Model the fold of this input.
Amino acid sequence: MISTETKLYVQLEPDQAAKVELLSIQEKLAPHGRVVNEASLHMTILHIGLASRLIDSVVPHTAATTNDILLRLALLADELESAILQRDFTTCTLYPSGFDFLGSHKTSYVITFEPTLELIGLHEVCLDLLKSFLGDIGIQDVDIFMMNDANLRYTLKLLPHVTLARSYRGEINIPLPSTMGFMMMPTEQPGDAHYSSV
Done:
């Protein structure tokens, strides 16, 4: 059941072997920043976020009520789950491409990954479903709305990465793992789930 406190994402989580490698990298980062806790290590394919925040964003631009939006949001959650199942996208092997700084202040230290055809295809399908949702609730120019929305603008481009540390100020030489395994996570998360878009 979707409520205003539900969070919606399409996300991957590292498998156990990948998690061990990520934690090993984090040990080297710890003196220079605030490492992300193990339970929050993830890769976001499509970030929708907290339902109440989405509602606050769209209400000024549509005649749809909060209840209308929640009902359509529940359908979107089902559509996203179906898209994942139809593509049989439950596990995948990804290839690290480097380390980078992201976020508004460029202090989130991340490991980036090559965008495989499977990831690109999944992102495109899920993005189309999100755009259909916005159109159905009355958003007139969906692309412009998303580009101007602080929450949704990051959904427009796929940038596969896992955030390792925040407020990071160091610069160290860490060898890249050759591959890492990931698994799909549920699209609906409780409101107290501590995931962010970067």
Notes: The mean pLDDT is 90. Residues 7-186 form a domain with the Cyclic Phosphodiesterase; Chain: A, fold (CATH 3.90.1140). The first strand starts at residue 7 and ends at 14.
